[in-house]
Specification:
CATH class of the largest domain: Alpha Beta
Shape: globular
Low-confidence stretches: none
CATH architecture of the largest domain: 2-Layer Sandwich
CATH superfamily of the largest domain: ATPase, nucleotide binding domain
Mean pLDDT: 95
Strand content: 15-25%
Helix content: 40-55%
Number of helices: 9
């Protein structure tokens, strides 16, 4: 029987500092320190994010190691987020990982943040059913910065078959929230209020783009003009119709996503379907995907909430697969803000 592999993982792509310890596919600890200062500015401020990472990185790693019940000598490798993300934030995690690797003389592993969101489905206990998708499977990866449909043929062989041509779905949610005057982060609040509204009350245009791609810039503009026009006629329009507005715009975004996902499933013939990324925590998206899965006889995989947002456990599972393939990085490794898939 092969010796277990123990990985220390670091995630610092945006405003969450996270460290995790994995032994094979099992998560021993997964610690996340969320930066609250950005609420004051209505969005993430890159310089403040990198400073907060510098303050958090050592305490977070120390806590993760202690919680996992391991010592530094137990690690076989350290994995870190190479990109994409905010460069200053990535540099903090990358610098720590390289120092840790050099100090302990263990391999350094580079990980793509987007690949990690997808492979979270290979972690033991990643969902309520404790099930894992069989290869090949499709994954709709939706976050504040990315919207992609990815075909996964093996843990390290993936192909983006659909992507946004402009804005991401998560960005659209946040922009809608800002227009409505909701505090940052607004996406979860749109979801909360939408649960009390009529999703068919207001109709918004869906983008029409080729193949399996997405576009949300036009929807954001149409929503802005809609709100401005309604406020001209009734200054209290948002307050009086907030639930219905949120339900209607959320329904438009979710149906746009699932229309393309359904098309991808039909074109590829793949019936193992997963979602990942921060927006995969959206209750409407999760419910609508389950319903669509039942109608099409798909097997659906929805991650636990703790694995939807940025976390180091997802970095660690990619590190596990790369370790087995001996895909190690040199200490000259550099983070890339716009790392291609």
């Amino acid at each position: 029987m092969a010796e277990p592999i123990t990985i220390l993982a670091i995630e610092s792509s945006c405003d969450d500092t996270s460290a995790a310890v994995l032994k094979n596919h099992k998560v021993l600890s997964n610690v996340v320190a969320t930066q609250k200062i950005h609420k004051e500015f209505g969005g993430v401020v890159p310089e403040l994010a990198s400073r907060a990472h510098q303050q958090n990185i050592i305490p977070v790693v120390d806590f993760a190691i202690n919680e996992a019940g391991v010592s530094k000598k137990d690690f076989d490798a350290i994995a870190y987020t190479k990109g994409p993300g905010l460069l200053g934030s990535l540099l903090v995690g990358g610098s720590f990982a390289k120092g840790f690797s050099a100090g302990l003389e263990i391999p350094l592993i580079e990980v793509s943040h987007m690949q990690a969101h997808i492979l979270v489905h290979q972690i033991d206990g990643n969902n309520a059913e404790n099930s894992k998708p069989k290869f090949p499977f499709l994954c709709l990866t939706v976050s504040g910065g990315h919207t992609q449909i990815v075909r996964i043929d093996s843990p390290l062989k993936m192909e983006v078959i659909g992507t946004t041509l402009d804005d991401a779905a998560g960005e659209a949610f946040d922009k809608v929230a800002k227009i409505l005057g909701l505090p940052y982060p607004g996406g979860p609040l749109v979801d909360k209020y939408a649960s009390k509204g009529n999703k068919l009350k207001y109709l918004f245009p869906k983008s029409r783009v080729d193949k399996l791609n997405f576009s949300f810039s036009g929807l954001k503009t149409a929503f802005l003009y809609f709100i401005r026009q309604e406020i001209k006629e009734n200054i209290n329009f948002i307050d009086e119709n907030l639930y219905d507005i949120c339900a209607s715009i959320q329904h438009t975004i979710v149906s746009t996503l699932l229309d393309k996902l359904q098309k991808a499933a039909f074109e590829t013939g793949i019936s193992e379907i997963a979602i990942a990324g921060g927006v995969s925590a959206n209750s409407s998206l999760r419910a609508a995907l389950q319903k669509l899965g039942t109608e099409n006889n798909w097997t659906i995989f929805i991650p636990k909430f703790e694995y939807c947002t940025d976390n180091a456990a997802m970095i660690g599972i990619v590190g596990m697969y790369k370790y087995k393939e001996k895909k190690f990085a040199p200490l000259t490794s550099k983070p890339e803000a716009r790392l291609s898939f």
